[in-house]
Amino acid sequence: MNSGRWRQVRGRLSRQRRHLVAAARRSDHATAEHIRSLQERVRALSAWLGVWGVFKSCPVSGPHLVNNDFGVIVRMPGVPVHVHQGNDITAATGTPIVAPFDGTAVVSPNVLGGLAVKVYGAAGYVYNAHLSAYGHLGPVKAGDVIGYVGSTGDASGPHDHFEWHPGNGGAVDPNPLLSVVC
Question: How many of the other CB atoms lie within 10 Å of CB of 87?
Fold first, then answer.
């Protein structure tokens, strides 16, 4: 290859290299900006949840599976047919159940729910059923152990039957709120 042709090839390769380096820098800058934007969204969402979020912690503190079964018709032998008013959170017997917000925990046992506890807070109350044992009762902070997963009452296996009653009214599907904290 003659020297003139060599300079042309070298010049073309040098321009291509500069173009690729500039494109990589733009890409790196855009990626860094996107990461900064996502980090800001996480900070804003965390701040919002701190002020407006209802549940501050997942009600089951340990390995679990949240079943989105609110509104399902329950048909079990020896149990009256009824509409399921909460989400079942499956976990091993004895797994801690915690208060999802600050409030007051009180016992609330009954035939269907077995050992149960309600936590009353500023925005309403939650009901946890089928406990194997009670934990701390009375004034509680989010994350305090209020009971332990069990299978008392009409349970077919160990789980926390978890209901959300905003404004102390009827039960509403807690799954959208649980999906944020669990």
Answer: 24
Strands, E assignment, 20-78: 65-67, 73-76
**Phi, psi values for residue 110, rounded to 5°:** -160, 170
Q: Please give the model's pTM, rounded to 2 decimal places.
A: 0.72
How far, rounded to the nearest angstrom, does the alpha carbon of residue 111 sit from its chain's CA centroid?
29
| Three-state secondary-structure class, residue 162 | strand
CB 129 within 8 A of CB 137: no
Which distant-in-sequence residues (6+ apart) come within 8 Å of 25 by Cβ?
none
Query: How far from 121 is each of 96, 130, 160, 182, CA to CA, in Å?
Result: 20, 21, 19, 19
**Token representation of residue 125:** 């109350």
Identify the helix (H) or strand (E) that includes residue 23: helix 3-52
Whether domain 65-181 has CATH 3.40.710.10: no
In a structure prediction context, what are the per-residue pLDDT tens digits for the chain, which is 182 residues long? 677 777 776 777 678 778 777 777 777 777 778 788 777 776 666 666 655 678 999 999 999 999 999 999 988 888 889 899 999 999 999 999 999 999 999 999 999 999 999 999 999 999 999 999 999 999 999 999 999 999 999 898 999 999 999 999 999 999 999 988 99
